[in-house]
Amino acid sequence: MAPTGAHGDPRLSESFSAPHPHHPERMKYNRSSSDAISYEDLLVAQYLEGLKKAETTGSRKRLNRPTKHASPYMQRLAQSDHMVTSATQSLPKTRRPISAVPAGRSSARERKRIDVKFMVDGGTAPGNEQEAGEEEKSQRKAKLRPMSAPVYKTKRPWSAKSITSTTTSIRSRRGAKALYKVQPQVIRATVYKNGGQSDATRVTAHSMKTFLEACTLKLGLQFAARRIFLIDGTEVKFSEEIPKDSEVFISCGEPYKDPFSNVKGDAHKKLYAAWTMNGVVLPTEAKKKTKSALSKRMRKMLETKMRRVMIFRNGDGTEMVETTASAENFGRFLDDCTVRLGLTSPSRMIFSWTGAEITDINEVPLLDRCLQTSTTPLYGPVWISKGERFSPKGVKAFLDTTIKFCKQKLHAAHSYKKQLQYGLAGQTQQITVIEILSKTEQELQKELQETEEGIEEFSEAKRKLQDILDEIQDSAMEEEGAGANYTMTHIKEFDSSHRLVGQQGIRLKVYENGQDEAAETVFFNLREASKGIGNSQVLLLQRLLDVITRCAPMKKTTTALSKVVTKIFDREGKELTDVIALKNDQEVWSSFGEPFIDPNVFCLQLTLDKVQGMSLFQDRNVAVREPLTSEDIPKGEEKPSNWEATIGFPILYDYEEVTYDLNKDILDNKQLAVDKHELDITGHFLQHKENPGMVLYSELALQPKKKQGSRDVWPPRSQTWVINKRGQIYCRTMPQLALAVVEKWKVHKLFADDETTAEGLAVGMEKRQPGNPFQQWEFSDDGFISSSAEPGLVLTYIENKVQDDDAVTMDMMMGLGQEQTATTDQPKETSPDSYEPDFDSYDDDRQEEAKEEKTDGAKTEKDPFPGQVYSVAVIPRLPARHPWAKAQRWALKQEKLENLGQWKHTKAQNPLWNKLAYSWPVNAKGEWNEDCDWPMEGYLIPYAPPIKKMTRKASTEVDLNDGGDQRVPSMRTVPLRLRVLKNGEKDVQRMAHVIGPDLTNMMRDLNKTAMNGKRPHRRSLSRDKNLDRQEEEMTKRKQAKKDDLKALEFQLFLDRCTALLNLPFAARRLYDQDGKEHHNLDNLQRDQLAFVSCGEAWSDPNLSSQEQQRRMILATLAADVNAMKEFCALRNPMNIVLDVDGQLAAGSPLVVNPIAVTPEERQHIIRGPTPEPEDEENETEGDPYANLSAHERAHMVSEQRAEGLKWPWERVLNVGLDEVIEVNQGSPKEEPAFTNQDLYKKFRPKQPKSPRSNHLAHQRFVFEDGFLAVKSAPYLVVGLEQPEIELSRVVLCKKNPEDPTMRWEADTQGFIRSKANPELVLGVQMPSLKSDDDGTTCSSFYNQPVSLQHQRIEKYGMANQKWSFEKETGFMDAFSADVRDKEVTAANKANVCTFAVCGETPVDQAGFVVMGVKSSEPLMVCAACARSMRANTRLRKLEKNTEFICAVGLAPQRGVKMIGCFQCLSGKVDLSTFEASNSLSQYDKELKRLRQMSSARIIAREISAYQHVQTVRILAHRNGDGRTTEGVLMVGSTVRGFLDQCTYHLQLSTAGRRIYTQDGTLILTVSDLIHWNLACYGLSGMDINDQQDGEKKEKNGEKRKESLDLKTSSVLRIPVEVWVSCGEQFARPEHVDYRRKLLLQQREERAGVVLELEKEKHILRQMQGRRTHGMEGPQYISTLSPDAPVMVEGGWTQPSIGEVRKSLTVHQLENHLQEVKGQQKQQSNHSTKSVVDGSKKLYSQPNMKRVKAYKNGDPPDKWTFVWGSSIPEILQDGTNRLDLRKTAGQLFTPDGRKLTTFEEIKRDQLVCVSYGDHYKGSKGSRSQVEVKANWSRARKKDGPQATEITVTSNKHPAVTVDPFGPPALALTAQGTESEKPDH
């Protein structure tokens, strides 16, 4: 590490010591541009001064490392002596740890403050400049030799010097303490919460940081402790300021609170309180110094002559706005008024309340003092105008309100004045204001005087305001009469044709197609619309349609295919195309693509015309009809009692004489009237009883239906018809007339199609005659009316109607029943005020009829009476599917309040009758419907839908209009009605008729507009496969929409069942009488009996009560168990990533699915490039588009289509030269020739697969520039399916940089937020819960969609909204949260109480507060329990984050009865991390056991006997570790769960199997552990079940039991030390600790010998090395021995005498070390010898051995540990651990030798386990597999006969031996079996 400071970094030293350009001889530090000395400059100056002194005084006589000066940028940590240094500074390289270095401060650290001399001036003093220069020169001379050159003081090497010798000598000279005497500083104090006197605790720490952390934990503060105060309020900054054993107060950042403030206040009040006659008088508080009521801004305003002004809009006197105005800037005041009032144009004029214009702020009047609201004066009011005339209406409203306020104040002041006068007079009995009694006479006099002054002020203000009101009263009345034109009188009015006006616009009243109400007024600017289109009427019409679309949007209830208006019609149904021809206020009807629908519903109406009798030339009497005017019949004379029906023309009538003496013109008019409007005088008429000259003629007509009592209908109730049981039909307005068949008038006409002929008898109104068969009518059960006189003829409406030939319109009319087509003529108004028929029109009609054939009227062949027109006749019944059979169907519409619900008694099969509330007088049998109120009264509606369903194919199709070609699939369009009972209810009288929702329009819209009305268009044969695929996809989507509609219908039906049956919870399941559950309403019949439940299983009402109770109990328990299963299935989702559902194309939804790679492959992707997936062998080669995108497929299809359009010679000519050469010479791309094509196809290289066909590409994304894009297709990004919806589904979209909904932002908490709305995050939709009774199917997160959700604010319960993005792989992992968060999220979804998951640990989760329950603490429940309690309990949602425990789990302890989401197992289930699986398996087995029982009482007893969860804390150790290692704290409720936790936390090699206590007791249950723990504390007799169940205790000995319970609860809080074993024998912790201690002691004993031995060995190696390094040659000495004449002595190979001696010493030390070890071994064996005699059988220990076992046939390296005390135990344990199919029976050594005795087995010996086979070796299994493979290959190649070989041999006559049988010696001897005794 490079050194720092002046000697280290040259740049740093140059920046500090470089001379200033203006003062080269002076040291200069950096100074800011403002010439101000900064704190940094002072630090640098002080640092440089230290460097200078060190250089001048330092001596270089001996080599020392350069002194490291403290950097000026080294800062001290708060409240500590540690310093933050830069990364370039290095610590001293000492052998001792850094913690052992004494905390003494060096000279650099002792410099706490900056020297004062550096604060005087930034540079060097003038007197010291020369000295500084000389010192600098001397330094430069001394630095001629580089600093790196060493100067040795002595010859002692540098390596032999101690690093800390210099520091130690300096420290010893200074008299510093030795290291062992230095004691750390300790802070010890008693701490309280800020402002509190209770909950004190004692805290000890070594530093302020640890002291504050300890205070946070021990005081249980919600936030971290940050400030410390002494008892007098002094804040502590350093640890030295805290006295030992003092009392301090801890704050989380808030200021000091006096803990004795309340006590001081109470004591002060008690001391100085006084008793008076009026009660206790508390001491007065010391008056504080009052502050000015004016703010700084207000005072500044007063100084700058600003005024507060009250302003109003012109014409408004209620909405006051206050603003400030400057007397010097009037224009700015106008601008402020514009902004404050929100005017659309600038303010131009200001008026006072008298209407005078104000041009100066000083003219604004000051408001009366009594009306002021503050001390700052308020001016005004004034009214702001945008240029219009003054409007006194606003001033009048303001004055009225203010005068009323003054009156209220005066009334109150007078009342108070009267009370004060009573007080002064001493009339205390009259006083009602209590405060007056406590006031003195002087105070009363003062109050009276102030009240009188106030009365005078308000009276004066009232008088002034009243004068102003009287002054403007006339102007206000004038404005009220003139209206809005009053303020615009000063504006000149132009005519619409003026040139300044330009082309006039159009104002239209737009109605929706088929509606005559809620008109929208639309303004169309013709001038602007005509620009840029020339004379094109089409473009002008299109612009008008666009304006109508924008101003009159489509309603949500319509079923139109489009949202854009495409056509407009007038009232008659004529399409309007000429925009110029439209007029103002013209009524138009908009269409969204559908044909015109008449907005009116037509009904049969009685019309009356005036009749005039004339005597023609005294030859004959005639009757001529005339129009009836309002003057003809006075008001009130239309009552039926004033009229008399006559047969024939009335006798008492004075005919008008028509003679030849009359004027020719009059005579011609009379003759013309007779020719066109003559009536049959033998008909039926109405004559006024008092005025015989008034005669009326009745006629039938079809008119738009009006409401009851409408004034547009005359005579009143002329549309109301009455039907009695005699079969008569008469009108309510004239009951003396009845509907009758006119026998003498025959009808012959054509319907509107000009093809169908209507021949029959006319129907009119005749005098009512009982018993007349022509007036009696019969009603069929299918909606037809026939005459009793003519049974073969039915009543038919025969008038022409527009668009009757339009099949679509008629289908809509039949479907909706209210959309009728319009008539040819404008509907007649029959009111006397408006009915004025044009008599000349009759002449025109007669002239046209004379030119045409007699087919347009209902007349006879000769037509002698042209005035009689019949619109209704009786004709033969047409076929059921005839196009005009609908004109013969009728219905009765009852809308009177008395008979409003009569339609329910009509049993019609067609649901449209119920929808339209139509009635019919007969039932399905053709009899009178006695359920109706007779006589029946209502509207008579023609063109009614059929009562019965008309089907062509009953199973597949339904025809809704007779003769229509349109057919719809068989989906029920009838609102289904069922008889519904509660689940298990026997009493049928308690049923409720529930009618399902009417989804007719939605279902029809689905049939017509599936896939948005688009069908695939076949353009070429090459796209047949793609088109088939599209059609299949369309069919699937259509079926999905149908399923969604069925689900919606079913859910709405259940909602209605919940309300009608008053269920405690929402209805969720539906059953029929047989107990079959239905998930939709398709298979149910009308009025079928059904049973609904709130989620529980089917309860048969025919069963006995005990059996029902049994099933109910079991169903409740099963529901709890199923909830546990759902929780376990959802609690820990892992390896789930974001995935694309379907192809990688725009619109594909995003889901979550398991990751497509293994963990090893994922790590490989992180380490290296992405592996390309291999092609599957079974991949289909027939589909060339399988691995291509939609874009690529489109290109290929277009190329194929273009190729198919070419002529053959064009295909040849367009071939390239390369392709021709390739064809001639052979394509190089052809497969090369191989001798074995099968092997080539098998081993040929596979082509890389397109990433689109690989599922891995669907799960990899990239996060760039806020876009979350697919890695293999970056143009596809994550977006919203419907951006306009706030919570939309997430899909793939094409990248659009301008769309903010496609940009995302990932934060550190794991949320992915939308940049368009940061409050919305990506989240996984939670799966819907399964409703299976058996619980076999559980929910899963697989394939769950991803949507945009609101972010949850709780800490736990939002795991589905947390993600983690891995940049290397591109995987977006879902549920990236901790285990607790996942479990709480799963619990909230699975309806599991969080108390069962988290226990008594407070958790920040979503919850509710239970209201209305008496409890000392607020009861808070989790979301799952709240859903179950919401029907019976009032709940309030928690508004902010709160950590709480679900009160349902604590209910038994608190004594509160609460039932949460668990009905049977509340508080008895532990679903924590390691206990959930065990609890589920336990209760699942218990449920299966209880289902075998038949007694409900026993089952209930068994369930109630379940114990509550007994949570125990243990401190777990590994078996054999003793207490030397720190135990792991665990919490659980079962031994099995504890074993799982121990396996995980203690990191055991194998699963934990046994738990022992410290005395070796084997723990089998948690109860055993609790009892053992209580016994250790002397509480062995306590019953823990009483405490858990919370039962009531007896009064005798209650205190003693409570104390014992207190002791028990305190004992159970203490963790129990346990030791976990994997199956081995228990090792006592004290023995283990003793052995470990003994080993350490023995090691210390051997340490001296080992050290000496190593030293001698080292010396010996050094001696040997020096000898071999010298390489000295030997000496050759001659000898006299003939065998060895030359002897070699010396040399480097011969050890020296010193080496021999040293080797002897080493040998002696080694022997001594072995002796010490042997002695220690004997000592250890003696010390660990069992005290108990092991020879006895009671104390004999099993000889357990551990061996390494592997399966026979496997390689030996696949061994595993097996334990046993005998060979059978080893075989049994090996069977379990090796997962053998059979029980192991033999043991072999690796060389194949069989082990027969246990003594042959040694510890950790490698053995082979076999279950009966001979020893195979490592290749045995492979050879066996080869045999089987050869057998399979032979059968596959040559057939089954290849292995079915039978070998036969001929027996030798002399030798009786079977060559294929067993050897003779292996057979059992004869008689052996018979000798065996029978067992």
Secondary structure: elements and pairs:
Blueprint: H1 10-17, H2 39-57, E1 75-76, E2 83-84, H3 117-120, H4 129-142, H5 165-173, E3 187-193, E4 201-205, H6 208-219, E5 227-230, E6 235-236, E7 246-251, H7 261-272, E8 274-276, E9 279-281, H8 296-303, E10 306-313, E11 321-326, H9 330-341, E12 349-351, E13 378-385, H10 392-425, H11 441-482, E14 506-512, E15 520-524, H12 526-529, H13 537-551, E16 567-569, E17 586-591, E18 602-616, E19 620-626, E20 643-647, E21 656-658, H14 664-677, E22 678-679, E23 684-688, E24 695-704, E25 721-723, E26 729-731, E27 737-750, E28 757-767, E29 777-779, E30 785-787, E31 793-797, H15 807-816, H16 839-851, E32 872-876, E33 890-893, H17 911-916, E34 918-919, E35 936-942, E36 957-958, E37 968-969, E38 977-982, E39 992-995, H18 1000-1008, H19 1024-1060, E40 1069-1071, E41 1077-1078, E42 1089-1093, H20 1105-1130, E43 1136-1140, E44 1150-1154, H21 1159-1167, H22 1190-1204, H23 1208-1213, H24 1217-1225, H25 1237-1243, E45 1261-1264, E46 1267-1270, E47 1276-1280, E48 1290-1294, E49 1304-1306, E50 1312-1314, E51 1320-1324, E52 1344-1350, E53 1363-1365, E54 1372-1374, H26 1379-1390, ...
Parallel strand pairs: 3-7, 10-13, 14-17, 18-21, 38-42, 60-63, 66-70
Antiparallel strand pairs: 1-2, 3-4, 5-6, 5-7, 8-9, 10-11, 12-13, 14-15, 16-17, 18-19, 18-24, 19-22, 20-23, 23-24, 25-26, 25-35, 27-28, 28-32, 29-30, 31-32, 33-34, 33-35, 36-37, 38-39, 40-41, 40-42, 43-44, 44-52, 45-46, 47-48, 49-50, 51-52, 53-54, 55-59, 56-57, 56-58, 60-61, 62-63, 64-65, 66-67, ...
